[in-house]
Design goal:
With 325 residues, the chain is α+β, with helices and mostly antiparallel strands. It has 12 helices and 12 strands. Helix 1 packs across helix 2.
C-alpha cells in the first residue's frame, strides 16, 4: 500500500473512540507499514494512572485501521511493540498489510459512529430484538426496565463517589469544552454540543465541577445535580462488556470498538457508562448481579437506544497532527 493509502487508513482510525476523547493515538508511516504510537502527554494521571483506558483507546484505534484496510482488500497483522518513550511518544504496535481480505461487515459504520448523549425514543419490539442479538460471549445485554433502573442507580452512586475527588474533577474539567469559544472545541475533549448541554447547562456544569461542588456537596445537593437517571429513560438496553481478567487492555479496546460498531449497525446509538467499571465496588456488584464470573473483568458498559435526533459531529484532531513524520 502506498503513502496515500496508508494516510487514508490513519484518517479512518481517527474516528475511533477514546477515553474523554483525549485521542492518544499517533501514527508513523514506515515503508508499507504503520506504526501506532501513544502520545503520553495526553495521559489522564488521575483518572487513568495505570494507563488502562489509554491502552483500550489505542486498541480501538488499531482496530479502526484494520477495519479500514479491509475496504482495500487487505488483511492486517498487528504486532505489539515495547519501545521506550521518546519525545512524548511511545511505540505501541506495528500494522502490516497483505492482500486477501473481504470488506469487514462493520466497515460502513466506522466513520459514522459517534456517542449519543441525547434522549432515546421509546424502544420498539424491533429495537429490543436488535439489542438481544448483540448478546455474546463477552457482553451481557440488560433489557429489563427494572434491571436498567437498578443499574442507573448504581451508576449515579459510582459517578458521585468518583467526582468527590477534587483532582479527578479538575482533570475532567480540563478536557471539557463548555463554550464554542474554547480553542479546542472541535478538536478533542468533551464539548457541550456532543454532551447535548444547553448554554445554561454548560455554565452550570462548569460551576458544579469547579468552585460550587464542595458547598453543594456539604448541603447534600451534589448527588442530585450529577444524577443521570433521566438519561436511562427509554434506553433499550445496557450492555455490560467484559473480558478475561488477564487480557491486555489493548486487545480489550479492539473488541470494544467492534462492539460499539455492532450497536451502530443494529440501528441504535450508545454512550459509555465508564463509572460502572471504574469504581471497583460497583464493578464487583454489577458483575455479581449479572453473572460475570471472577475470571472476567468488567471493561466498560454502554447505554443504548433509538436516537431521538442526530449525533453531533465528533471533535477530532486533524490528520496533520495525528500522523507524525
Amino acid at each position: 500500500m502506498n503513502g496515500d493509502g496508508l494516510r487514508s487508513l490513519v484518517q479512518a482510525a481517527i474516528a475511533a473512540p477514546s477515553v474523554h476523547n483525549v485521542q492518544p493515538a499517533r501514527w508513523r508511516i514506515d515503508g508499507e507499514a504503520l506504526v501506532l504510537l501513544e502520545d503520553t502527554t495526553r495521559g489522564l494521571t488521575v483518572g487513568d494512572p495505570r494507563g488502562n483506558d489509554a491502552a483500550i483507546s489505542l486498541g480501538a484505534a488499531a482496530e479502526g485501521a484494520a477495519i479500514a484496510a479491509s475496504g482495500a482488500g487487505l488483511s492486517t497483522r498487528i504486532e505489539r511493540l515495547g519501545g521506550a518513550e521518546a519525545g512524548g511518544l511511545k511505540a505501541i504496535a506495528r500494522l502490516t498489510f497483505s492482500p486477501g481480505r473481504e470488506p469487514d461487515p462493520l466497515l460502513e459504520w466506522l466513520e459514522r459512529r459517534a456517542s449519543f448523549r441525547g434522549d432515546f425514543l421509546a424502544p420498539s419490539p424491533k429495537d429490543r430484538v436488535a439489542a438481544q442479538i448483540l448478546d455474546w460471549d463477552d457482553r451481557v445485554v440488560v433489557s429489563d426496565p427494572n434491571a436498567i433502573a437498578a443499574i442507573a442507580a448504581l451508576y449515579d452512586q459510582a459517578s458521585y463517589a468518583i467526582m468527590r475527588d477534587q483532582a479527578f474533577r479538575q482533570e475532567l474539567y480540563h478536557w471539557m469544552r463548555l463554550s464554542p469559544r474554547h480553542p479546542d472545541w472541535g478538536r478533542d475533549g468533551l464539548n457541550a454540543a456532543a454532551m447535548q448541554l444547553s448554554r445554561l447547562e454548560a455554565i452550570a456544569a462548569g460551576a458544579v465541577l469547579g468552585p460550587l461542588f464542595r458547598p453543594l456537596d456539604r448541603i447534600g445537593f451534589a448527588p442530585a445535580l450529577l444524577a443521570e437517571a433521566k438519561g436511562f429513560e427509554n434506553a433499550t438496553a445496557v450492555i455490560l462488556f467484559h473480558r478475561a481478567a488477564g487480557e491486555d487492555p489493548f486487545d480489550s479496546g479492539r473488541a470494544f470498538h467492534r462492539l460499539w460498531l455492532e450497536v451502530e449497525a443494529a440501528g441504535l446509538g450508545g454512550n459509555v457508562l465508564a463509572a460502572l467499571a471504574d469504581h471497583p465496588d460497583t464493578a464487583r456488584a454489577i458483575s455479581a448481579g449479572h453473572g460475570i464470573g471472577s475470571d472476567r473483568r468488567l471493561v466498560s458498559a454502554l447505554r443504548v437506544g433509538r436516537r431521538s435526533g442526530a449525533s453531533f459531529p465528533r471533535a477530532r484532531l486533524p490528520l496533520g497532527e495525528v500522523l507524525r513524520d
